[in-house]
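Quick check before the chapter quiz. The format below is the same one you will see on the exam, so make sure you can read both the input and the output lines.
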Amino acid sequence: MQAFCEGQSLFLEGGSAEFFYLIDAGQILLKVYVPGRDSMSIQAVGPGEALGSSWLFPPFQWHFSAMAVEPTETIAFPAKTLRDIAQTNHKFCYELVLRLAAVMTHRLEDVRQRLIYAGQGLN
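Here is the expected output.
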């Protein structure tokens, strides 16, 4: 179990992706750096959700930043250990990639819907 205080960063965009997180309690805000605008919030992740896929794909660097918006408890899995297991256990690797792909697809669809909704106010 790994705990984070409100306002504490879990990881920073461009940093080394060393963990995969499952959120047990609390809420994490994903942010992305936008040149000329500092950073922009993308999505909130809460209890029961997975956090992070950058650790699975080279160059193993975070594509986003993550910050606890309230006290948060996570289960943190060392990325290298998971990659090593996936390398030797193809059934595990297949299940892991399938589940992460489902999470990423859901998150992309959520962002898509929010962009569509935001764009409706621009016309």
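If your answer matched, good. The first strand starts at residue 2 and ends at 4.
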